[in-house]
Amino acid sequence: MKTINELQDEIIEEFELIDDWMDRYALIIDMGNELPPLDEQYKTPEHLIDGCQSRVWLHSKMEDGKLHFDADSDALIVKGIIAMLVRVLSDHTPQEILDCDLHFIEAIGLQDHLSPTRSNGLVSMVKRIRTTALASLPDEDETSETE
User: Fold this and answer.
1) In DSSP terms, which residues pair with 57 in a beta bridge?
2) Do 66 and 139 contact (CB within 8 A), yes or no?
3) How many helices, marked H, and strands, marked E, lie in the chain?
4) pLDDT value at 14 more than 70
5) What is the spatial distance between Cα 44 and Cα 37, in angstroms, rounded to a whole number?
6) Nearest alpha carbon to residue 79 among 112, 36, 31, 19
7) Fewer CB within 10 A of the terminal residue: the chain, N end or C end?
8) Given the residues 49, 52, 71, 100, the one annotated as active site
9) What CATH code would you report for 4-136?
């Protein structure tokens, strides 16, 4: 299993090969198209991410102490952005997700090439993933021994 930083570095390398932002947008859209379809049962209001102009659904489940994310969006570029976040953060422990620095976003220049509403949406996506990770941490009561 690759670390979060190794996965981020992979994305950075993929973008380093492309100078033109129209081509970079095409790569982002391709990444979104590679996202497995989200089961319709998760396209509900509780799975919608607030703060995104387009609709973005995020579903999570805990498996063997690691959070797995599935996502979808009705906008092509936004679907690509959530696909990158899922690729980097899915199947890691909640603590690893909370401790990571998502440096790939800045490294590929994504924030500089998003409209303000998409930029806000990106922040909302990251916030929802981190909130989910925080809520998925084991309770200290369960991990410490009772006196």
Assistant:
1) 48, 72
2) no
3) 7, 2
4) yes
5) 15
6) 31
7) C
8) 52
9) 3.90.1010.10
Residue 52 annotated in active site: yes
Please report how the helices 76-89 and 116-135 are oriented relative to each other, as an axis angle in degrees rounded to 10.
30
DSSP 39: P
Model pLDDT, residue 145 = 44
Contacts of 120 (CB under 8 A, 6+ apart): 51, 52, 53
* Domain boundary assignment for the chain: 4-136
Over 90: is that where the pLDDT of 31 sits?
Answer: yes
From 124, 122, 133, select the one nearest 80 (Cα to Cα): 122
- Flag whether pLDDT at 143 surpasses 80: no
Q: What are the distances in angstroms from CA 39 to CA 7, 43, 57?
A: 25, 7, 10
Phi/psi of residue 38, nearest 5 degrees: -85, 130
Dig out the tokens for 133 from the structure. 């990770």
Q: What pLDDT shows up at residue 108?
A: 96
Taking the C-alpha atoms of residue 102 and residue 22, their distance in angstroms, rounded to an integer, is: 23
Please tell me the predicted confidence (pLDDT) of residue 5.
Answer: 97
Q: Which helix (H) or strand (E) holds 106?
A: helix 104-107
pTM for this prediction: 0.92
Q: What are phi and psi of 136, to 5 degrees?
A: -95, -5
